[in-house]
Amino acid sequence: MTGFLEYVPGNSLLHRMNPVAKLFCALLISVACFCTSNLIFLACVLIFDFALAAHCKMTRQAMGLAKAVTIFSLILAVIQLLTNSTGMVLVPLPWGYIGTGGVIGAVTIILRLVAAAVPLFLVMYVTKMTDLANSVVKVLHVPYKYAFTFTSTVHFIPVFMNDMAGIMEAQTARGVQFDQGSIVKKIRLMVPLCIPLLVSSVRKTNSAAIAAEVRGFNLRTRESGYKQYPFATLDVVSLVICVCILVVAILLGVLL
Amino acid sequence: MIEFSHVSASYDGELAVLRDVSFRIEDGSFVAFVGTNGAGKSTTMRLINGLLKPTEGQVLIDGTPTTELKTSELAQRVGFLFQNPDRQICNNTVREEMMFGFKALGKESPEAEVRADEIMAAFGLNPDDDPFLLNRGTRQLLALASIIVLQPPVVVLDEPTTGLDFRECTKVMEIIRRLHERGTTVVMVCHDMEVVADYAESIIVMSAGRVLAQGPTYELLRDRVLTQEASLVAPQMVALSLALGSQHPQLANTAVGQANTLSEMERALGLEIAEGGEPR
Amino acid sequence: MIEISNFSFTYRESADPVVRDINLTIPDGAFVGITGAAGSGKSTLTYAMNGIIPHCYPGDFYGSVNVCGLDTVECDLTEISRRVGSVCQDIDSQMVSSIVEDEMLYGLENFGVAHEEIEARVAEALDAMGIADLRDRTIDSLSGGQKQKVALAAIVALRPEVLVLDEPTAELDPASSVAVYELLRRYAREHGTTVVIVEQKIALLCDYADLLVVIDDGRIRFADRPENVLEHADELLAIGVNCPRSTTLCHDLKAAGLYEGAVCKNVNDAVAMAEQVLALASSEEGGAR
């Protein structure tokens, strides 16, 4: 049973990479996606994303993610479709028309967001949160407090989701029908549930903070980490490849 | 009646948590599920109230498979008390909490209000209290009260005494006993064997996703092979009686060797002396 | 050694003290059980021992609490934590990592244990709790009992002088609860660690604790060896603390004049008692004839 954004153990190339290198590579790919609107380039990046996902046996998760991002970007795509009246007229609208330009723009938005998001999320799946935090502290000198805040937030997402599921279950058992009725009715049913969730979250975060403190949270420095995160050839090669991708993207953006 | 016939179940289609489980719970009985953590007891409870559907086999409530019942229909037949009352309580006053089930089912009525008042009085709950300021034991009572007020013919209790102290535990269990005496079918999961032995008429022993045995409580708790296999800790008086019976074979078939409860053991120890001392 | 004298504490948001006039001395290496009804102040007393009070919960603190030579008010929490290891009730929220090994490393790294020593400490603590095979597992995939052992191992690895545990077996079945107590007792004996446990299951404390502390309404009612505390069954019942059935049986037999002897705290004691009661009957029988 693996939850959203939770580490999936494995031993692929991606699993073995330096966490910081992974993070940077993902960022470089994402930035590259925003530097150009070249559809072929974006499609290539997307294929590359899925090749990576397939390599570390994360295709199922990547597909799920891609789907979620697509749904989100559809909103932006529709806006683009309705407002970008360029190219050939396809469908006339009262304020303009849907043109080929709009269609291309819409497709670009979806491709770009998916291609940019997948590597970032993939990093979460192939990297232990603690490794990411420790290496960011060690290599990038980020203060531990911030790293810890980030990791605990991510750590608590599944805990809270589990809580919410439990609360909804308890209410379902009392006859509350979450699966029926209008959205308004559903929301009205959900609102009271926020109270138990809030109560339990406050209690949980409080006890988590105390637990961390009695285990020496305040003493932790950059040198504390036991594991070392050296850059290996693999990391350097990967970074170079990703920089190249970015350069290609910028060139495409400038030239075309 | 609750009937499981060859039920298997799993979460997310992964490893089966329950494997080929079959049993029947007759109306009006008081049954406890016992077994270690992870034996499949809670999963069984979730199957009874339809929160989980079986991957194989059927769960029948009064002859109807849970797959054909809506959760709201199930909620009226089976009341469910969760281990953690904090997940259930979500209203600002005790009264609202008591009426919440009626509201959810769309069955608010003056009679419902009257019934809620009666139960609050019987449980010693103050209608205007804020549930979140009550202590754990009282919250558990409130959660139970808000289930009972709906008058389900069956109540399912998932570890109703966990986290409660002795007094709170007794209070909750006595209310459940009275409920049972008035005809409600009670199904519970409980780790405390003393509580199980005191209240349940029969038990269903589970281990590693299977049912090992179903039968009268003391009969099964006296079965050493069974308790060993299911890692159960027998109640102290049963353990005492069994230990005496096995260390002194002449006691095995006497009242001492057969005593199950504290009063039986006391009578047995007292009576043995009286019988041994007087007649000759 | 833990020395608590004239200690009272009132949480900022409440009017009355939660614990009051506490005087308690716990010798090094003792296995101490604290019990009492809900809301009696058990947890608050342990918070005083591990420094969470006054450092995390503000309020009025009277008297003094001295743990391993440290005055808990004057030292900061981190200083106390070096000597006192704590496991809270809510295991899930105190886990900081997703993998057992990382969970083990966290405290060791923070307290600056030499890096070359860390591996040995991790292995030893995992072994002591009997969970060496769980090292690479994700914490999500563990059962409640396993998580409890991981939480204990992570604290034990820090080699604290005192272990303070708040209801470590609340969510466990009886067999796993006994297993956790066995591990704790063995570990504590081998390392001379003082153990303080808040526990609702009094039968367990009677079997494992050297010192049983019973709290009622913020005050210590009893602090003695379990068998001595159990002499006061009626008073215990009156303050909402249940005795093991063997003890009740013992008291009832005593009241009826059928048994005179040491109080029973578990089934083994009760077996011996029953044997004595039955043997007595047979000798009387002989005399009558």
The helix/strand class of chain C is alpha/beta
- Oligomer classification: heterotrimer
CATH superfamily of the largest domain in chain C: P-loop containing nucleotide triphosphate hydrolases
Cα(first) to Cα(last) distance of chain A is 46 Å
Structural category of chain A = mainly alpha
Radius of gyration of chain C: 21 Å
Shape of chain C: globular
Strand percentage of chain A: under 5%
Word description of this protein:
The complex is a heterotrimer of chains A (256), B (280) and C (289). With 256 residues, chain A is mainly alpha-helical. Chain A has two domains: 13-134 and 229-255, no CATH class; 142-219, no CATH class. Chain A has helices spanning 13-16, 19-35, 39-55, 59-83, 100-126, 129-140, 144-172, 183-190, 194-213, 233-255, and strands spanning 89-93, 96-99. Chain A has a two-stranded antiparallel sheet. In chain A, a hairpin with a 2-residue loop joins strand 1 (89-93) and strand 2 (96-99). The longest helix of chain A is centred in the middle third of the chain and has 29 residues, at 144-172. Chain A is flat. Chain B is an alpha/beta fold and 280 residues long. Chain B has two domains: 2-221, Rossmann fold; 235-275, no CATH class. Helices cover 43% and strands 21% of the residues of chain B. Chain B contains twelve helices and ten strands. In chain B, helix 3 runs parallel beside helix 5 (136-148) and helix 4 runs antiparallel to helix 5 (136-148). Helix content of chain C is 45%, strand content 21%. Chain C is globular. In chain C, the strands form two sheets. A six-stranded mixed sheet of chain C has the order 6-7-8-3-9-10, sandwiched between helices. Chain C has a four-stranded antiparallel sheet with strand order 2-1-4-5. By secondary structure, chain C is α/β, with parallel strands linked by helices. Mean pLDDT of chain C is 90; it is low at 280-289. Chain C has helices spanning 42-50, 52-55, 77-83, 91-94, 100-110, 115-128, 144-156, 174-191, 202-208, 226-229, 233-238, 245-255, 267-288, and strands spanning 2-11, 19-26, 31-36, 59-67, 70-71, 84-87, 162-166, 194-198, 211-216, 219-224. Chain C folds into two domains: 2-242, Rossmann fold (3-Layer(aba) Sandwich), CATH 3.40.50.300; 244-289, no CATH class. The chains are: A mainly alpha (256), B alpha/beta (280), C alpha/beta (289). Chains in contact: A-B, A-C, B-C.
